[in-house]
Amino acid sequence: MLELYDGALNVPEIITRWYAEETDYNYGAYIPFVGTVREEDGIDGLSFDVYEPILNAWFESWVTKAALLGAKLKMAHSRGDVLVHESSYIAAVFSPKRRVALETIEQFVEDFKASAPIWKYDLKNGQRLYARERSTAIQGAGLLGRAL
Amino acid sequence: MVTIEFLGPIQKAPLTLEASSLRDVAEVLKQDAEMAQWLDNCAVAVNDTLVASLDTALKSGDKVSLLPPVCGG
Asked: Considering Cα of A109, then A113, then A117, then A121, what sign does the dihedral take?
């Protein structure tokens, strides 16, 4: 399940609802990871662009991978502006036992940072500035820049 | 005609052009000065699937997307 929201996430509502949705499935472990905007370098907040078609495909590939381990993934992310001390990201894994959940959440979040088609901007002094230095080129990037 | 769309922070309106492969798209974009900072770091998708070869064939109606470096979360 992938959920996108305009603005900040309602973290208590989402993680409580996800917990309730899975209570009948005999999962022994539920690990939510919550990403919150920190006060840093004078920013007022962050802003996000999301490209849904490829994000959906990327997420579904992870759902399939997790299912092979008996695990289930859920994710929520913001579009647009999220202010300091608000949250923009939740990833969660459910699995029968803790080891699969711990390993899956780490791999999933790391691949999310490297591959999910989401772009981050700093909100600062009334401007929306692409966070280029903190961004990662997707694997295989640079194709169109190669010598012809 | 093929449509080229520029995602995220690339401030550029979509282009339409004749192209039979991504090599043709690269040739056009390399002549565009405002794309110079992006071609070496963008991933490329055709009809929303990431691709890895300049020889990827294109047909009329295809959509080529350029995805600059990402940072979700």
From this structure: positive
Q: Do B69 and A145 touch (CB under 8 A)?
A: no
pLDDT by residue (tens digit) across A51-90?
999 999 999 999 999 999 999 999 999 999 999 999 999 9
Looking up tokens 């979509």 gives B14
Domains parsed from chain A with CATH numbers: 2-132 (3.90.1170.40)
A59, A70, A117, A118 from A56: Cα distances, Å: 5, 21, 10, 12
Which amino acid belongs to residue B72? G
Give the CATH class of B2-67.
alpha beta
pTM of the model: 0.95
Q: Does A112 touch chain B (CB under 8 A)?
A: yes
Whole-angstrom distance, CA of residue B42 vs CA of residue B65: 9
Query: Looking at beta carbons, which residues of chain B come within 8 Å of A35?
Result: 73
Residue of B nearest to A91 (CA): B73
The first and second tokens of residue B24, run together, are 């043709």
